[in-house]
Amino acid sequence: MKVIGISVSARKFGNTELLVKEALLGAGEMGAETTFIRLTDFKIEPCEGCINCVIKRSECVFKDRDDSMKIYRMITEHDGLILGSPTYILGVPAILKMLLDRGMAYMYGTGRPNLGKPAVAIGVAGVRGWEAFTLPQMAVFLLSLGFRIVDQFVAYAQGPGEILFDRNAVERAHRAGRLLIENTTEYRGTCPSCGQNLFRLTKDGLIECAVCGTEGEIEQGGIRWVKVEKRWGEEEVIEHFEKKILPSVPRFLKSRHKIKELRKRYLKK
Ligand SMILES: Cc1cc2nc3c(=O)[nH]c(=O)nc-3n(C[C@H](O)[C@H](O)[C@H](O)COP(=O)(O)O)c2cc1C
To answer: Does some domain include residue 55?
Structure first.
């Protein structure tokens, strides 16, 4: 089994990188062949919103402009992924979101070559309670590509390398790498569908999983799940593509002359 570890941190040998590498050591112990990359060593440009990947069902048409497609191809060549991200302002650094947006090609354009592959998410934060979006955003990255999140956790450290003083975190990372290969987990999440812990209140007074849309009612003593969504499942992604994305293309083409007329008043800078 080939496992790739990706650190989203720009800090060389920072906390994220060290934990991802520790997890890779764990996976290696279980017989995996491992590779490590640092996302910030690559050039990643923002998505231009042309949706050619969706319409033409291809890789991004700007694939030669930067390394995004190269990274996706590297991910696809591996059987498992260990993704590590630091927390920047409550969530992941922008570079991961930029890569994710370019990844529409790997959701709709090229199909989902990573469907069903195992992944581990390791978040790093400086201050407990200041990381609410980190794992959910990492989960969106992984689930949208079709990965199964086998294990996930957040570790806490501030200065680069300080995580090495936290033996529990280092051992947890090591175990996560082993768990990826064993296909078992130590993680217990709240959402019954995607396992994430980030919810919002709907106007009907329900709670809704921010990552997959599963809904529940808060009752005394717990949550009663009333609608379990599988937003990132195989069929659901195809249905979303066919029912919500594809019909927008002829609708837009039909109305584009009218839009051109209406937008005249905004042309001046
Ligand atoms: C720009 C920036 C924003 C940060 N924002 C947060 C934050 O919102 N919450 C938090 O817990 N830590 C925050 N941190 C601290 C980092 O998550 C922490 O230092 C972590 O160990 C960095 O991991 P690294 O060494 O792998 O880069 C921030 C750090 C930076 C540089």
So the answer is: yes
